[in-house]
Amino acid sequence: MRTARVGLRVTPAQRRRCFGLLLAAGDVWACALDMNRWRRQRGLAPITNFQQLCRELHKAGPGAFGDLNSPCAEGVLRRYSDAWFATAKRRADGDASARFPRRKRRLLPVRFRYGSFAIDGQRLRLAVARGRLPLWVRLDRELPYPVGQIRSVTLLNEGARLFVEVTAEVPVATYAPGTEPDPGRVAGVDLGVIHPYAVAGPEGEGLLVSGRAMRAEAHLHLKDTKHRRRAVAQRAPKPGQAGSRRWRKYRARQRKLEARHKRRIKQAQHEAAEQVVQWAVERRVGTLRVGDPRGVLELKAGRRHNQRLRDWRPGYLIRCLKDKAEQAGIRVELVDERGTSSTCPSCGRRVPKPAGRRFTCMHCGFSGHRDLVGGANIARRDPGGPITTMKRNPFPVVITHRRAGRHLPGAGPSRRDPRRRPHHGTAQGSPGRPRPAPPPQWGVARPEARINQHGRPTTNVA
Ligand SMILES: [Zn+2]
Q1: Helix then strand then coil, % of the chain, to nearest 5
Q2: Whole-structure pTM value
Q3: For residue 133, how far is its CA from the centre of ligand 1 (angstroms)?
Q4: Alpha carbon of 374 to ligand 1 centroid (Å)
Q5: Could you tell me if 301 and 310 are in contact, meaning their C-beta atoms sit under 8 angstroms apart?
Q6: Which of 49, 124, 221, 394 has the most CB atoms in a 10 Å sphere around its CB?
Q7: 317 alpha carbon to ligand 1 midpoint, in Å?
Q8: Distance in Å, CA 369 to ligand 1 centroid
Q9: Distance from the CA of 390 to the center of ligand 1, in angstroms?
């Protein structure tokens, strides 16, 4: 199952109806919460069973939730019921921190199952309650999947923008005999901030995906947010006070920019994962062993480091890599990454973590890229075991460099973000007026940039 997000192009009337649907879904959720609160206050057992919830819904009669039809309203109740039972199970297993659904939300995504939507080119019809006018909306791009494979469509909003998430059943990639990924060829993947993915593969090949553009985007976004917040701090409403019109405008702008930032980072992370999978497929790597760093995230590390970890989102990096790898027929294994970046891949002894990008062993004199050292050690680690001495890949000497976030402002030739003022005006040497970065070109063969591990460009190997 793969999911893609597609924007909607809507007229004002269609926009009102779409938001009406989201609002109605929020109402259904709120009704379920309110009903169970009312019951609890009277000492009655909550209604959480999906069928019973549906029965209660149908007591409300048709038309109670505007355009929202019964299957979609039932979908919201299904979500409520699933969430309730998941919490009940976690509580039964002794997790006292699990909470039952309790928060109301004004707008809730609406899921349209197979049969309750129709797709005609770039037009999409969403099912509405019986007797209502049909609702057609326009998609802002071609769907990336064949129409016959699409299983569900989810309408949602981000700030004031409307999207649909299209879920499709995509068969696993097939390969010509002799070119399919070989599970015996293992590559180790080290997740990091500077390099979201550093991959050490078989036969001394490595891949480094640079995440510097993503980090710059995160820094600039934080800086901008702080500036905006400082500018309106005076106007912030006191508790219990209604916000001014100006305050509401600020909040709307904040939400819009937050959503844009999230989209940009997400896109860059997906591109980075795609590059890893492409690289692995070209080299017939059938197993990606990923070091899972999520254990260290629980530690308190101070506000600066906490912010860094929040921007990093390693869980999401793992998830997108897993999705894309499985689609390509590559297995992903998670292993404990503790100690992998401070162990020498050559002699296996512990070495203090390097401050820069270069790892040097004081015992045997080995030297290499720090993130690839992590990757090489992860490749040799068994899921759930220590670093073994089992068949080790030679340390990468041929390294492919890729960049994530080529769409990000400032990642282009100027390498400056247009949100920063060009500090030299039109003076010589100044990047000048801000330009958008060139769009990434998928499927077009890029010249292979290959650099050996000492950073010197070699003659083109390919
Ligand atoms: Zn060593």
Answers
A1: 35, 20, 40
A2: 0.75
A3: 72
A4: 14
A5: no
A6: 124
A7: 30
A8: 14
A9: 17
For 185, counting Cβ atoms within 10 Å of its Cβ (0-12 exposed, 13-18 middle, 19+ buried), the class is: middle
Measure 392 CA to ligand 1 centroid, in angstroms.
15
pLDDT digits (tens, 9 = 90+) for 60-70: 777 788 888 88
One DSSP character per residue, 226-248 reads HHHHHHHGGGPPPTTSPPPHHHH
CA 286 to ligand 1 centroid distance, Å:
28
pLDDT digits (tens, 9 = 90+) for 81-140: 999 999 999 999 988 888 999 899 999 999 999 888 999 889 999 988 888 888 999 999
And the tokens for 156? 């949602």
Å from CA of 293 to ligand 1 middle: 23
For ligand 1, an ion, list residues with CB under 5 A: 344, 346-347, 361, 363-364, 366
Cα of 337 vs centre of ligand 1, distance in Å, is 18
* 438: CB partners within 8 A, 6+ apart: 406, 412
CA distances from residue 443 to 274, 275, 446 in whole angstroms, order as listed: 12, 11, 9
pLDDT band (50, 70, 90) for residue 312: confident
Q: Are 124 and 41 in contact (CB under 8 A)?
A: no
